[in-house]
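Hello,

Following up on my earlier ticket. Below are the three sequence lines again, exactly as submitted.
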Amino acid sequence: MSRILLAALLAGSALASPVVAADLRIGLQEDPDVLDPDQSRTFVGRIVYTSLCDKLVDITPELKIIPQLATAWSWSDDGKVLTMDLREGVVFHDGTPFNAEAAKANIERSKNLPESRRKSEVKSVESVAVSGAYQVKISLSAPDATLLAQLADRSGMMVSPTAAEAAGADFGAKPVCSGPYKFVERVAQDRIVLEKFADHWNADAYHFDKVSFLPIPDTTVRLANLRSGDLDMLERLAATDAASVKSDAKLNYAEAVGIGYQGITVNVGNGERAKNPFGEDARLRQAFSLAVDREALNQVVFEGAFAPGNQPYPPNSPWYNSELPVPPRDLEKAKALMKEAGYETFDLEVQVANNPVQTQVMQVVQAMVAEAGFKVSLKSMEFASLLQDQTAGNYQASQVGWSGRVDPDGNLHQFVTCKGGINDSKYCKPEIDKLLDAARVSTNEEERKAKYDAASKILAEDLPLIYLYHQTWIWALDKKVEGFVPYPDGMIRLADVMFKS
Amino acid sequence: MLSYIIRRLAIAVPTLILVSIFVFTLQKLLPGDPALIMAGEDRDPAAIEFVREKYHLSEPIPVQYFYWVKGVLQGDLGVSLRTSQPVLGLIAHKLPVTIQLAIMALVIAFVIGVPAGILSAVKKGTVIDYAANIVALSGLSVPNFWLGIMLILLVSVNLGWLPASGYESPFVDPLRSLETMIMPAFVLGTSLAATLMRHTRSAMLGVMKADYVRTARAKGVRELAVILKHAFRNALLPVVTLSALLFGELLGGAVLTEQIFTIPGFGKLIVDAVFTRDYAVVQGVILCAAAGVILVNLVADVLYFLVNPRMRATL
Amino acid sequence: MSAITEAALPVAGAQRSGSRAWKKLKANRSALVGFVMVAFFVAVALLAPVLPIDDPAATSWSAVRKAPSLAHLMGTDEIGRDVFSRMIWGARASLIAGVISVVMAVALGVPFGLIAGYFGGWIDQVISRVTDAMLAMPFLILAIALAAFLGPSLTNAMIAIGLSAMPIFIRLTRGQVLSVKTEDYVEGARAVGLTDFAIILRYILPNVFAPVLVQATLTIATAIILEAALSFLGLGQQPPAPSWGSMLNVAKNFLTQAPWMAWWPGAAIFLVVLGFNLLGDGLRDALDPRET
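Thanks for your patience. The regenerated structure is below:
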């Protein structure tokens, strides 16, 4: 009798031993905006969605498209119908089952919700047909090679149709998706808390009970929090802090070159202010570009952590044209080009956003091009005014960047085609339009690469956009966090990430 | 008394209206198109159009103001363009945080400033008085954002004693709340301490010359009792009422302090809102802040009136 | 109006108390210390172009964020510029911002206050309500909104600060006018037939002068901190032009690697502001008729 009692007591105590909750605290650079994948527009919002909402497809670190909620897909011969097979056994956080109807409702929401900011991303979608309980056929108005990449981001994020129906545009207050973590609470500018969703189709791969996102804009303070143990990991470590994190035994360091870029947009055709030599004569722009020592820029401002660039894609991207490597600084050639254009010195006004990093970059550039004869005056502006001036054409040159898209079209088309939606330089060349429009509809990778290569050759001559560098996403993690894989899109994917035991 | 209060409240109304018109117009004149910013990086024309429609951004400014006033009278201060959260809700969440910061700062300011002021008044003209004055002025002269940065460097980064950022409500975790708020409250409080010290000093000086103090001394009451029981108690009320007037300064100081220590309060809300052209938020916050300042000033004036027997006689 | 009747009227006490005030000021030790501090910074700012210091805009890729040394007495900043030199040139920005914004505030505020106080009636109501409205908004927020409206630059920051500080002087002046308005000699002047303008100029303004001077000195201190605050937020003097506030803004990103970038500008702001506060304090003690 006593042995049974002893065994029972032992078993009981084993069951009663406290399980330590594994809570992951992530420090973000900004506070996300509205938490609705169809309305959201911030980078940090996407980081939250990576844990909160599953998408139809996802990407590998090499930017290849892989299944997530869609298990297989195929294009029709004319490239106008995309058939997708959907994963079975998936359920939303509120219990609604995920199926073809749900997928259809989601894509239609992205297209039709008045507040939707995804409309241009799914513009080519004409209709979605349910061809089986777990199969949809997406019909396009014209072939669109970029669609799959769009579905690997916010447009492809699946939200619960019941919740979306009920909440409408206020969905963001209490988002309901089907990701590995579900929404618990949000305190504006303080924290976003998610907890593990036990019924996730891949629940075993996720080891944290709770994930909290804490926006801390100051990079020094964010790092201080990580060091003191108030955070477990943070995104966008300042490049100048990289060395101290690497040499810190209690911290881990991870980086991935991002898919975006930073550069100088030149007004070549946007209104009156384009009518100046810098906007009209490509030689001056080439001289400017040659006078910049991109390696040194990277070294001085980012301690070598970022990647110098001269194309919309970083040098390690599969879309990079290797025949046009990042040019080293050539002061002689720059001066010669200027002379050819008829100038010993040239006055130029460059707008820059009034944040310390971009201002620092431009001050370095300013000093560098001064040696070739460019007298750059910097006009620091608040981002809001900068954007307005840029779109209105009220600028000569402007230092801006782009966060980057998985599909190469996303980094180029809207910026340099005649009717491009973000073409602030109003650069317009029919050959570029032809090349980029063709690249966007072909699904043949080699064909696309050839077209982008041809386009980059022309753009390297015309330089409506002088690319400077590509931002590297840098994460700092507490030593106890293992399994983290850095992705070029800057997202934090928590599958197989856990605390060291 | 009542008629005085009513008169003051009546004057407050046109003042608030003026504040709202002024801020509204200023914001609308700020360069930058909020629809463009809110539409996102992709600048989808449909999204831009939608934002313009929904928030009446293409209408002339007086029309937009009218829509806003209509909303306010119905208790709706609009929504944040950035997060679509209702402004009233945002304010309701963040005001307590800033109020907590302000109260803690006031307490620190009192604890430092008032004894210093008493000491300074009692030891008027001596080295102690002189030194206290310098210390007080130093507190006033230190840029509080610099003090904050230096404290973070010393206390959080180097010593690791206190967290560098964050906030916890005192109702959820009082210890953590204290940990996160003590440094910002100290930074905010030191400049106030200076002002309080000087007010206390001059109030004490005024009071100590009074007849009842001389009487107490003549009666042989111990000096300490004279100072604390007789002089200070009477000096306290003007000090309190004067410090109510510091409320406006507190709000202003909180702006930067919250920015540096990442405290999700009123001040941080409005700075972010100005930069992202989040009109409704700026409008709502400033209106509340102005109403608060006016109210507190009124309370202070009423208190002063009541406390001051000479002024009470004129009622 | 005859010269005799004019001379017969007692001049408002300003002249007599002037010399007494000066004596008191000279005796006040803290005011003296304040004056010396202010004078030091003013001298530094004025002499900047002729001092043997580095070019504040000269960058150096090899000397990025170096600690203080013999070559660079205060170290170098994030793109290799000499901090010492930038500190000296930065003094100009801070002092100019402080002084000019207050001059603007006084130049606008005092006339409005005079008009409001002297003429009373509905013009007083209007000016007072507008002043109340401006004072009801927290100073810094008003300055931020104005600076954002005008665009980030030192000039615009000065305008923003000047406009934000104007209501203080309106209220101060108005209060002074109200208390002086009822004095006998003002009544007398009016009886003699002096114009309003002459009365204001000759009898009211001198009484306003002292409190305005004290307030102005103290407001310069606040204005310098405000300019630094605006620059800290990115709204004031823009790089590469040096300003203590914008230097602090950049320095906060390098706190752990290059803390000296933050020490110097902050300490300088502190000292110059302390100087003005001490000076203003001393002026107040000297000019305050109650403190004998």
